[in-house]
């Protein structure tokens, strides 16, 4: 029987996050010039536990159509930092505004075969908000309990070969959603960071 993981309290989450170092994850050795991007791993604390906020991208998009992702996108010229990129994109995509997010840190950038170097920014949503989805960027918004994601059996890893090199690809199934690729890898990093 799988070990049950208790919900993490707000103060405990901050303490664990600040004390622990993110585990190193092997990044693909990609030589191409990559476009810089940032995403917001937003955590909402409600009913005594954290929930991770996720979106589903529309199928008409050129990059990652129909996939589950975090709010985020490419760095724009006016962005002062990667954190600003992640917060700006969250405001544009789902109406989660910067003054309602407590940024607690970020993880090292993750390279993707789709041509991006994505920096995950971790933030806590301060107060309940009413999402307003940009239909050009987001088809659906949903949350997953962090306690579900922390269960190791809910995070699967498979090894795939590309140009003779083996790479891990992560998969998480939650209800009707299949979370995979960079988004699942970032969730896996967050979970490994928090389990002590």
TrEMBL record:
Listed GO MF terms: coenzyme A diphosphatase activity; metal ion binding
CC cofactor: Mn(2+); Mg(2+)
InterPro entries linked to this entry: CoAse, NUDIX_hydrolase-like_dom_sf, NUDIX_hydrolase_dom
Ranges for domain Nudix hydrolase: 34-166
Keyword Nucleotide-binding tagged: no
Signal peptide: none
Gene3D superfamilies on file: Nucleoside Triphosphate Pyrophosphohydrolase
UniProt xrefs under Pfam families: NUDIX
Keyword terms of this UniProt record: Hydrolase, Magnesium, Manganese, Metal-binding
CDD domains: NUDIX_CoAse_Nudt7 (cd03426)
NCBIfam families noted in UniProt: PRK10707.1
Protein name listed in UniProt: MutT/nudix family protein
């Amino acid at each position: 029987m799988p070990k049950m993981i208790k919900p993490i309290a707000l103060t405990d989450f901050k303490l664990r996050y600040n004390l622990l170092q993110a585990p190193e994850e092997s990044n693909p050795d990609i030589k191409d010039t990559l476009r810089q991007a940032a995403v917001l791993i937003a955590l909402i604390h409600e009913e005594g536990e954290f929930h991770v906020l996720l979106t589903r991208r529309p199928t008409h998009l050129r990059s990652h159509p129909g996939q589950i992702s975090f709010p985020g996108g490419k760095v724009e010229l006016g962005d002062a930092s990667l954190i600003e990129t992640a917060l700006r994109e969250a405001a544009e995509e789902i109406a989660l505004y910067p003054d309602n997010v407590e940024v607690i840190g970020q993880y090292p950038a993750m390279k993707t075969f789709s041509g991006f170097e994505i920096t995950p920014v971790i933030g806590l949503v301060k107060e309940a908000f009413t999402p307003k989805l940009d239909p050009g960027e987001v088809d659906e918004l949903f949350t997953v309990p962090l306690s579900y994601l922390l269960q190791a059996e809910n995070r699967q890893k498979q090894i795939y070969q590309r140009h003779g090199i083996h790479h891990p690809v992560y998969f998480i199934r939650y209800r009707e959603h299949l979370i995979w690729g960079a988004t699942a890898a970032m969730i896996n990093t967050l979970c490994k960071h928090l389990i002590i």
